[in-house]
Write a structure and sequence with these properties.
By secondary structure, this protein is an alpha/beta fold. It contains 14 helices and four strands. It has a four-stranded mixed beta sheet with strand order 1-2-3-4, covered by helices on one side. Helix 2 packs across helix 3, helix 5 crosses helix 10 and helix 8 runs parallel beside helix 12.
Length: 378
């Protein structure tokens, strides 16, 4: 395969001999420092005429042309205007292009001083205040439209609602089942290893049931929803905004909240309790299989003890978190999606924010649930 041969750069040089100033080599950005050092050595030029000979000049780029023009200006100002010979058409065209502009072209703007820590803190604080204000405005608008939809339930966008149920519910079943099953396996193994030391393997069922139904089932489902559902909502709404589909809805007199936000939020409120119940089933199943495989507990004994020590209230505690987690996931996704700008990378940025903020708020909400239930002895 033939390859184009690239000639190596020739070192730039400048030499004064008998009122002839010879410009040699390649005057490119790679040789600027060398050229500037050599040009400073030209201290005095005697005689009335000076010939600037560029017959041996090779490549000339913008940086080299600016340096050469500055040299010509310095010679003309201090001594006399040189007679320029040996320049080819390309060299002359480039010199004419930058003539009179070399100072502005070579100007390097001053680097602004680094801002203080207090300035950075203040700027970020203002950003967060503006963002919180936008969240509150979004929540207020959502509350108005949500209660309006409850009063006029027949006006709900049922096609969008059913499509959202399919996306955030049905299609999420496999990944939730797999991860919940693995969490149950790991929990049963870790609990069994610790309890076996004290001969208390029978209590694996107690701890596993409490952990899966109260905490891990809802939390794993919510985290998967944040990474899957919230990001999908943000990407969908963001793409619609970039394509000006949301503006088109407003132009036609439709409310984006009625068509895009409310159906997704209602769908999440319906789907998440069922997803948490699905996660609980597979979490307990994984723990049961691990308990049988490593600690010899029969399936019948496991289920019998599970029925005796884990009551319905434990399940209801986990399910009670579903509406809050569903609202966090769907509303964060909708908020970030509607705040996408028209830039190319905005969808990716807002999607990342959506996932991070949703997971953060889910963990905070779960911690609040734990504290409240502990105070209420639930």
């Amino acid at each position: 395969m033939d390859r184009a041969y690239i000639h190596p750069l020739k070192p730039a040089d400048i030499k004064l001999e008998d009122n002839h100033l010879y410009i040699k080599g390649d005057w490119t950005k790679h040789h600027i420092n060398l050229i500037q050092k050599k040009s400073k050595r030209i201290r005095r030029i005697s005689g009335r005429e000076l010939t600037l000979d560029a017959s041996q000049l090779g490549r000339l780029d913008t940086a080299g042309a600016i340096t050469l023009q500055k040299l010509i200006n310095r010679i003309s100002k201090k001594w006399l205007t040189p007679n320029m010979v040996g320049f080819n058409n390309e060299h002359q065209a480039l010199l004419q292009l930058i003539a009179g502009k070399e100072e502005s072209l070579s100007h390097i703007p001053k680097t602004p001083p680094p801002e203080s820590v207090f300035t950075s803190i203040g700027r970020e604080t203002i950003k967060k205040i503006v963002q919180i204000n936008a969240y509150l405005a979004f929540l207020g608008q959502f509350a108005i439209m949500f209660f309006h939809s409850i009063r006029h339930f027949s006006e709900l966008q049922w096609r969008s609602f059913l499509n959202s149920i399919n996306e955030m519910g049905y299609r999420a079943l496999p990944i939730i089942a797999l991860l919940s099953f693995l969490i149950g396996v790991v929990l049963a193994y870790q609990l069994g290893v610790q309890l076996e030391t004290y001969g208390a393997n029978a209590y694996i069922v107690n701890l596993l049931g409490q952990a899966v139904l109260r905490e891990f089932g809802p939390l794993i489902t919510a985290i998967i929803g944040a990474g899957r559902t919230s990001s999908a909502i943000t990407a969908q709404l963001g793409t619609m905004k970039i394509n000006q589909e949301i503006d088109a809805l407003k132009t036609m007199g439709f409310s984006p909240f009625d068509i895009l936000v409310i159906p997704r939020v209602v769908a999440s409120l319906v789907a998440f309790p069922l997803l948490i119940l699905w996660a609980d089933i597979f979490g307990v199943m994984g723990g049961m299989i691990m308990t049988k495989a490593f600690f010899g507990t029969q399936y019948g004994d496991f289920l019998s003890r599970f029925r005796d020590v884990v009551d319905v209230n434990t399940l209801l505690v986990g399910l009670s978190k579903a509406p809050v987690f569903a609202l966090i996931i769907s509303m964060v996704g909708c908020f970030q999606g509607l705040n996408v700008s028209t830039t190319a990378d905005s969808v990716g940025i807002q999607t990342t924010k959506s996932v991070v903020q949703a997971i953060f708020l889910i963990i905070i909400a779960d911690a609040i649930f734990s504290i409240v239930y502990s105070k209420l002895n639930i």
